[in-house]
Specification:
Blueprint lengths: L2 E7 L7 E8 L5 E5 L8 E6 L4 E6 L17 E2 L8 H5 L4 E7 L11 E9 L4 E8 L7 E7 L5 E7 L12 H7 L3 H12 L15 H13 L3 H13 L7
Parallel strand pairs: 1-6
Antiparallel strand pairs: 1-2, 2-3, 3-4, 4-5, 7-11, 8-9, 9-10, 10-11
The structure holds a DNA duplex.
Length: about 240
Amino acid sequence: MADIHLCMCLNQNNRVQAFQMEMLDLGLKTEVMMSQSRNETLVQGQWDPNKMAPVGFASTGVQEKHAAEPRLKIRIKERSAPCSVPALKTKKEPEIIIHTVSDEGSSNDGYRWRKYGQKMLKGNSLVRSYYRCSSSACPARKHVERATDDATSTTITYAGKHDHDKPAPKKMQCSESRLISPAASTDDARRKKNISVSSRKPSSRCSVDGEVDLMGEKLSKLGAEQALESAQTLLSIGIDLRPR
DNA sequence: CGCTTTTGACCCGCGC
DNA sequence: GCGCGGGTCAAAAGCG
């Protein structure tokens, strides 16, 4: 099962728009939310993947940061939390949070990341790993947060933008596997030492690009060109939502 | 040999 | 002012 749950919140000029989509193993259930305050969801809608039209809207409560659904969950939102990097402290640089809950728990975003730190958080119940882009002078960073008691739950926080294109793969397959998220590769490395890794199920691929375009179309009606722009930013960062 | 990971130490912001 | 927690640094070790 390769569910994808994407939530995106934006905050520009004191306005927040959000959209969310789920791909329940290609079921492509899509939800669109709009909110007026940070992290608060006011409206939620659904798209029928066949009709490509809204199915219904319903009010929802405040989004919990960490939902407990046992499925792959990807969340993208802006964050106002300060970053220790001085340049990022002053600027409210958008951060993108991807929360994944899956067996594979990896997010291959196409970039090469280098781990530069790891912290035990909240009484060792969480392990947060810190990665930066391997490309020199690239400001892109990401934090991979993983529960020690639930290794299948991973929260990835992206900060900063890549100032370069995705590195060209030398070999399609090899590079793809090589470019699997460092969190996964880290764990893989550990698993190599401890236990054997069960072979990955080749899950079907599904592109989100069309969904993002759909979101942009809908949001444009809401006066959310910023949303589309940020969605493009998201894509430019290189997040690959294709389940593997 | 070059790149990545590991890990303890250090820095800094924030709350009390 | 102090302590705590989060983020980063940097050296050593590991790996391909």
